[in-house]
Amino acid sequence: MRKHIQIAIDGPSGAGKSTMAKIVAKKLGIMYLDTGAMYRAVALKAIKSGIDTKDGDALAEMVKDIDLRIVYENGAQKVLLDGEDVTEEIRTPAVTVGSSNVAVNPAVREKMVELQQKIAKENSVVMDGRDIGTHVLPNADVKIFLTASIEERAKRRYEELREKGMLKQTFEELKKEMEYRDINDSTRSHSPLKKADDAILLDTTGFSLEEAAKVVLNIIKSRL
Fold first, then answer.
1. Which one of 76, 102, 125, 224 has the largest count of C-beta atoms within 10 Å of its C-beta?
2. In which element (H, E) is residue 19 found?
3. Which Pfam families does the entry mention (predicted)?
4. Tens-digit pLDDT profile for residues 65-92
5. Three-state secondary structure string covering 85-121
6. 15: annotated binding-site residue?
7. According to the annotation, is 13 in a ligand binding site?
8. Residue 18, marked binder
9. Strand order in the sheet with 125-129
10. Is residue 14 a known part of a binding site?
11. Fold type of domain 6-223
């Protein structure tokens, strides 16, 4: 394997990008960076600061000096916002919706991309998100666009939250939230959710996690 590699995994909400990226990073022994967590942290800061997550000017000002760091402790990624561990707090429904709102803000995206590219320059990484292959890491060694049906994605997210004891919505509410994010992420003017021309499309509807991971790892190994 090359000494320095970049792997981009993109796709819509609930496609299993983060889970897959963690598996890949662990198998290859490289860093995993959850870019979605970074936007969630921005949304959390906005909410705590009383800023509307759709207020572009206020967000642009807020993000200028945001103290946001991704660290690893005992192999687990932690998100530190203003020196505070917010790893769990950024997974609430309000932050989920807010993260999609802040992600359409050009100033927010520019700041986050700057941080992400710096990390990727210094480390071999697996990044997941919505514009990694098209914008953040356009020269990534491997690009995969992971997707699944809306029903399957909602079901996976529902079960994930239920198992973590963080379920605060009905299945239908979760599905509507996911549909909202799909539209929001795909139609934003700045770096929308889009499959890179050189990315491999993988629809995992009906796949088990193990089956999907096997396919993804085979794709990666064939290109490194």
1. 102
2. helix 17-28
3. Cytidylate_kin
4. 999 998 888 778 899 999 999 999 999 9
5. ECCCHHHCHHHHHHHHHHCCCHHHHHHHHHHHHHHHH
6. yes
7. yes
8. yes
9. 31-34, 125-129, 6-10, 142-147, 200-203
10. yes
11. Rossmann fold (3.40.50)
pLDDT digits (tens, 9 = 90+) for 87-134: 999 999 899 999 989 988 999 999 999 999 998 998 899 999 888 999
- Cβ 126 vs Cβ 25: under 8 Å: yes
Residue with tokens 């509410």: 173
Return d(Cα 86, Cα 90) in angstroms, integer: 6
pTM of the model: 0.81
75 annotated to a ligand binding site: no
Residue 192 annotated as lining a ligand binding site:
no
Beta sheet of 68-73, edge-to-edge order: 68-73, 76-81, 84-85
> What is the C-alpha to C-alpha distance for residues 113 and 35, in angstroms, rounded to an integer?
9
Q: Annotated binding residue at 19?
A: yes
Question: What are the boundaries of each domain within the chain?
Answer: 6-223
Place of tokens 């705590």: 48
Cα-Cα-Cα-Cα dihedral sign, residues 175, 177, 182, 183: positive
Q: Which amino acid is at 46?
A: A
Q: Which residue has the tokens 């997210």?
A: 157
